Each structure stands twice: as structure tokens, then as C-alpha cells.
Request: fold
Amino acid sequence: MQRILRLSLPLAATLAGASTLLAPGSAQASGLDAPLVGTGFSGPVSRDAAAIWFNPAQLGYLKKGELLMGAGLIIGDIRYTRNYTGTYQTPDSFQFKTPLDPAYIDATKSGMQEQVKANPIAPTGNIFFAYPVIKDRLVLGAGFYVPYAAALNFPKDGPQRLQVQQAFIVSSNLTGSVALRINDYVALGAGASYVMGFAELSKLQDFAGVQEFGQGLANPPINQANDFGPNAPSEVRELDVLSRPISLKRAVSHSATFNVGVAINPTKKMNIGLNYQHSTNMHYHGRFAIDMNDSFFTHDLASQGVQFKPLVTGDALLTFKLPKRLTAGFGYDINEFFRVDGFFSYIFYSDIQNFAVTTKSPDLAQPALGIGDTLTVNLPRMWKNTVWVEGNLRYWATKRMRLSGTLGYQSPASPDSTIDTASPDGHRLIGGVGGLLQVSERVGLVADARMQGILPRTVTGSDYDLGNGTYKLFIAAIAGHLKINF
Amino acid sequence: MSTAPRTLLIAPLLAALAAGAGCVDEVSLNEGPAPEAMKVDETRHVELRFLRVDVKSFSQTLTLEDIRNFPRQILDDTWLLDLNAEPLVFNALTILQQTPTEEAYMLPGPAHNMWKLLTMTPDNIVLDGTSLAPLLGVGKAVAIPPSLILADMIGIEANAPAITTELAARAVLDNVIATHPNAQLRRGLKTADNPEGLYPVTKDSIPVYLADVVDDFKSLPITFGPAAADPNDPNAPRHPGFISSTSGLKAALDDFAMTVTVNLNASPYKGVDLTDSTVGSVNSTASQINEAFDTTNPNWLTLEGLATDLVIPELTMAIYENPAFLPGGTSKEPAMQGDSPVWQLPPWEFERLIMELARSKAGEIPGHCTIYSPQGEVPDPLQAVNVCIDDTAWTEITVDESVILETPPPPPSYFWDILIEVAQVRLHDGGLAEGNANVELTLRDVPVGVTTADLVAAIKGNLAADPAPLTDIAEIINDNAEGDPDFYYYQPKGDHPDDYLYFVAPVDIRTDAYNNAVRPYAYTAPGFFADAALTQKVSDLHDIDGDVVHEKVKIEPGDTLYIKDDEGRKFQIDVGDKPSGHWIALDITRLE
Reply:
């Protein structure tokens, strides 16, 4: 030294990496919305126990108690073809300041790469219960459901490896609701939710994009001007030595939120529902592990004060905000056989401008560089507000069987500048079919199949060429529910 | 709520979590057992990376405390400059020479006598007890002042010092200092060309090491104390040294800082320890040291916190006399020397020193004869005394037979033969016995005679010309050696670098906390060979990026090399296909 860097290398504000590493894959805009909550018949103007999520005011019109529970399977097909549009250096070198010596430019790292895909399969389930404690006046409900979920499993060595390798993020609500039926025309409802989140993910962390790493290299004792940091150009990114495997495991979040709604029935055939779902601050506490087992980090810069253990582990805190949303629903009974309904949601994903990740481990500390054992890093996301519209056509095929068809659309939250495979986002088209078989007066069975996919999205404006390429996404969900009225 | 419904509620969550927990692999290390030594005929696959981490203007500041914590061997062996000792010696003798008389009488006997020698003039010279004493009789007889005779003979004014400080300083430098072994050779980097790491010291200089600067020159009495004059000759006379004590030359103040700025590849070289085929790191600093310093940058080396005035608060210089009284010579042979036994003494002994000094003085005296007659105008004046000194400094003093003397004048001899007698006698004034008149001069506030700026400039100049002395320090600053590779992988600078294997050199041997090599350089056949018998060497020492100390060979996939490690085991190295541009793959087989 290393001090540093130290050179630091050294360098060495590497610890920052241990934080940022976690951030990119931690949430996924509209892609985080679970494809199916409740049944295909559920919605902000639907009177079933799943209204606990969609619009608690609709509970007020339940005549009987209802138990709705079900399980399902979500199957995804996510494909990404990376397109290198930037200039890169040979990955087995370490040039940290542009312009690069032409000898270090990797001419082969250009253009479209081999397509990678993930085919996640994840179970899902929910249970809703509502009971009119005061007939035609007050209904109480409770539900446990998963409104947000994402699962990814990409090849570990694919061109997306620095974005995400594996991810599993789920947010489950345990909600208690109350609905007050004012009259036949208006009902009000509200719910309070305990939100439990669970997250795990893995990727290669590129220390070239870590602010503290660049600063550690630039500051005494290493004093090397460099281009590392959040604004690092592609020329200094994706170097083998700086690409360290990282995982976040067993991260659990406990938080709370609420929703309020109103149900309006201007006529007997027309229903209007309004729902506000408040945002949720998620704080995922878990354990991180990062493989620093390269002599560059463990030994070579020790004299400059940079020396990590081969495996650094510690506590990690991932925080982001699940967005608030406003939903307006509309339903109309065309005749005794047909009904149309739908909703429009405006989701405030612009609340999410970055992810904050805090890691803590005594093994992160590099005292010679003035770096302690705790580090908080913000990762820009700059998401946009989104809209979600859906329309449904319901049809009573028989007195016991009701069929449903759905079409919908979700707009993307991720701008081209920040999109990556951790949030394979785009203009999403939704379709679904479902059926309700009323086995008896009290018991009904619901089966649903929903599909959604994004229009192939070709991105060329990714910042620093991090996520340029073509994204494809298709998700299918099948679910079965048992509906019991009493 | 009863237990059953609660279970129903939690079940989906647990299912979801369980599913999720299993879908993301936790990062862990796949560390196998420690590798065992390679067996005969065993082959192992090794991949090596060459990672160039070119740092520019990389500065490292070392405080006084940092440097003091260096291994002692580095402090002692890191040479900074050869300090011109002439000003120091001159200043010391001037201080003595200018000591007021009343203070001079307070000096210890030998020092006082030395003061008398330095202040001796024809006017104040005391000839009692010497062979020149008859001149006193001449003076009485013919009324000629002996001081006049002496002044004429030496060619100076009657009140001028017979021995100038400049002459005395020169004599001390030539005879006492220059003959000390540690003022002849200085310690430095051990190289193949200079395995002992000893380099000549500039004339009239004493070497200054990093240890001197950070330790307030406390080691001067050791460095320049008694020492074997010739370490290779046990029978050679021992040099008694010339500094017996010193105190407090504080060159480096508490805020001292040395900042070194380098341009180099900070990454160590990855190599293979053939014992078990493990990958290790060879410190890359030494092989780059000649090109690491951008001396066009005026700040490539800065030294701050040096004392403005370099003054030695107290310095005791010592000159030792021979225990016997040694007469001057009386023969012209050998020419320009004579037959005095003083010439047989080591040059650093007082008598020899005076002899040399007098011979130097004689060189300033042109040949001449001076006749002295009694005062007064007479037609045929009496030539009472005739003093002749020729161009070889052969001196004859003749007294007319009509002048009655109690003792005859001294026999013809060289000038120095006369002076040595006077000096020896005067040195023992006050009843000092022979052997007890070692001259120890304790002087205070002696200016070193070099400004701080000059000192810094000298250090920078020396290290710029040859930065090798900084190698050890640079390696400590960039201490990144690991393991004990027998060879390593190198890619020269350039647009399309080739791949080379370098056999380790002595400079690559890892050192411990005390800067001692952790293992001997025990290779009996350094280099790479084309045959298992190691008869066809394919490596050489040719210059690559300034390195000429390593046996090196260019490799390409498909090459086969043979090598012998430091334990005499032979190995075959098969070069495989390159994993990528800056990696090589090797299959290493132990042959015997």
C-alpha cells in the first residue's frame, strides 16, 4: 500500500459494494405486482371477501359471511438479450481511468449477446374472511394475501449477471378490515395491514459503480484519479476482479399500511368503487455475504490499508417503499347474463427514486481509509408513476356457472435509463379467464388463469450501458379458490 | 381466534417463504483442504493472472514514527548520501584553534596540547627539548631571534600558525577519516553484481544512512569508532576510529516526513510455488525500482521537518598517538620521505598524521637558503647561521664554527622530520607520558557545514541517479508478497503483450518483519530449460521494461519447459491454451 488502494486499491472503499450489491434486484416496479390476488372475479367493484385488498367498502354489501381461500402457481418466462453498445476494456485487466489504452479495449464485447432466460415457478396463496357482524350495516374482514411478488433465476454467468442472478421477493399482507354500509348507495371501508416481506437475491456486484470504491481509490493514501463510481463509464465497468458474488438471504421486513375505500351504487346496475392503498415502507433485515476471495482484495493492497476477509458476512438492511395507489372501479350489469366491470389504478411508483441499502459488518471496516463497519448506499431507480387498467366481461353461463374474461394493461415504471433484468418492465398486456362453479348454495369453486406479457422492449438508452438490450416477459398464473358462504 | 384459523393464515406465508428461501443460493467459499506437496509424476493445473495496476504519482508519506518502525536492517542499510566531511572537520578544528587561551588551559592535557599545535607560530613556538633548541643558543650568541629563523624556514610570518587549519583538516581527512573502513565503503542494496552490497564512498565524505537521520546520528561513534581496517585481513591494524562520542544532532524534527511519489504497477506478480503448485505473489516493486520514480517531478521525493541548522551540539573527535616516541629521520632515502620510523605507523596515528601534515606543508615552501649574521654593518659579516631548505624539503641548518653552542644544531633532515619531533614533544607537555596523549577533542556546536537544502538536494540527486537504495523501503510500503513462488508470470508493456515466465531472483525472496529473507536463495540452476537434463537453457536476462535481473522466457501455448526448484526437484511445465488475454494456464508435472 492500503491505504490504498488503498491504489487502493486501493482501493478499497469496497465495502460500499457490499451494500449496493443488494439494491438493484430488490424490487421491480409493476413487475412486482402479483399477477393474481383473490380470484379473477375480484376487484374494486366486486363484493367478495377479496375486497379486503381491492376495496374494503365493498365488504359492506356482503349479506353473509364468506371465506375465500385459494392457492396458485405463478410461472414466468423472462428473456433478455443484452446489447453492448458501450466500449469495454478486456475484463481480465484493471484500467481505472479513461481514456483507455487501445490495447485494453475489448473489441469482442459489442452488440447482441446470447439470450438468457428465467423461468421462475412460485406458489402463491391467499385467504380472505368477512363476516357481517351487524347485518346490512357493519362487516368485519380479515385476509392474508400476497400483493407483491417476484421471482427470478437467471444463469449465474450470463451477461445479466451483474444485474441479477437470482431473486425472490415477496410482500404479504395480513389485513383487518371494517366496512360500514351507509345505505344501498354508499358504503365505506378501511383496512389496516401488517406487511411482512421476505427477500433473497444474488448477483455479481460491480465495484466499479460504487461511489465509495472510487473515492477510496482517489483519496489518500492511494490518490489515484479514477472513473469509478455511480457515473462510471462502460470502459471501466464489468471487470472480473471487481465483480464480486453477493447474496442477500433471509431478509424479512415488518411494517404496516392501510387502505380506505368507498363503494357507490348510483343505480342497481351500476357500481363504482374507489380505493386508496397507502404506501408501505419496507425494511428488509437480513444477512449478506460477499465473496471477496481475490488476492486483489484480500492481500495485494494490504499495505495501502485494503484487506478484506475472503468471505465478508454481516447484517443487511434493504429499504424501499411499496407505492401508494389510487384505484377507481366501475361495474355495470348489462342484463341478467352479462356484466362488465373494470378499474383504473394510478400507482405512485415515482415515490421510488432509489433504494437505500445498509450493510453492517466488522469485516467491512477499512480503518486506514476511514471506512467504518456500516455503510448506507442509495441506488438510483427514478421510477415513474404507472397506470393499470383492466376490463372484465362476466357471463352467467348457467345458474351455477359464471365465466369471466379479462383484458388489461400496465404501463412501465422503469425508464430506459435504469431498467435492467431485476425489473424486466415494459408495456404489459394482461389477459385472463376464469370460472366460478357454484357447487351449492354455500360453496363455490373458482378457477382462474391469467397471463400477462410485455411487448418486447428494446432499450438503447440505459445509463452507462448497464441494461441495454431486448426484454421479454410473460407470466402465467393459475389459481383455484374455494368460496364458502355462511 | 382459535389455533386452527391462525394456522390456516400462516400456512401460505410459510409456504411462500420456504419456496423463496430455497431459490437463491447463498454466497460461500469453496475452500478445499490445504494442498499437499506434489508427488513424483503428479500433474497439477495452475492458472496465473497478470493484472497491471498502474498507479501514477502514488505518494506515500512516512512519518518519523513510521520510519523508526522499519526493520533495523533497512534503517541501517538505506543510504541517503555521502556527507562531505571537510566542512565538519574544518569547523571542528577551527573551533579548537580559535579557543581563547584562558579556555584552552581548561582543556584536558592532550586537547590543550593539540590546541597548542594548532596555534603554534614561530613567535610562540617552544623548542625546549627538541633538536632545534640549539637555535636558542644561536639567538643568544648572535642576537638573532629564533622565531625569525623558523619563520623564514617555514616561509610564514612570525606570528602566523605553523600548521594552518586547512592543512590540519586535510591531514585528518586523508589520514584518519579516509582510512576508516566505514568511510571507504558504504552499505547498500545487495545485487547479483554486488552480492555484499558494498559501494565506494565519495572522497572526503562519510556515508549517511536513514538510521542516522531518524536516530539523531547517535550511531556515529559506532560507525566511526574502532573497526577492523580490512575485514578480510585479520592481521591488519585496527582503526581506532575518530568519533568517540556525539550527542543530539537532530536532523529530523518531530514533524519529519518523507514523501515518495512513484509510478508503478502496484499489483504483485502471480507465480507458482512448485512445492505444492500453489499460487503466490512476488513483490513487483524491486523489478520496477529503476523506473518507478519520475524525477522530472520536483516532488518525487520530499523531505520535510528537517532542522534548519545542522549543528552537532557535542562532538568528540579522537586521534590516537603511538605509545612510543618516534624520532624523525635523518636520511634522504626513500626520497621525499626519509627513514623515520613514523612512516611505518598506520596513517591514522597522531605521529603519522603530523608527518603527513608536515610533508604537505613542506610542499608549500619553496627551496631557499637564508644566512643570518649578527646585527650591525661590517665589511665582512659573520655568517653565523645558514638555513637551507631545498625543493625536496631537505633541510640543513649550519652554524659558523665561531659560534659556540652547548649542543650542536640538528642534523640535516627533511622538514617533516624536524617538525615531528617538535610536535611529539609539545604533545606531551605537562608531563604526559608517551601513550597518554591521545587527542580527544570535545567540541560543542559544531556546524556540519551543509545546509538543509543542500542535504535534501544531495539525497534527491543520489536517489534519482540510483533509486536502488529505496528498494527495501518501497517494498515495505507496497508489501504484497505472499508465499514463495519459484517463478512468476509477466506481460511486458505494449499494445500486444507477450507472455513471459520469470524465474525468481534473489531480490524476490520474501522477507520477514525484520527484513531478513525467509529462505535462502538456494537455486542451483535458475532459469528455464528445454530439456529435462537442464542442459539447454532457453531463458536469459535480457532487458524487458528495465528488468535485467530475472531469467525470463517467452511462452506460447504448446510450449514445454523444465525447471528446478530450490530443493533440487525438477518439474515440467506445459503451457496450455490461454483462458483470456491476461491469463495463462500451465500444467505442472513433478519429474523427480
In short: Chain B touches chain A through 52 residues (CB under 8 Å). The two ends of chain B are 78 Å apart (CA to CA). Chain B has a mean pLDDT of 83. The first strand of chain B starts at residue 43 and ends at 49.
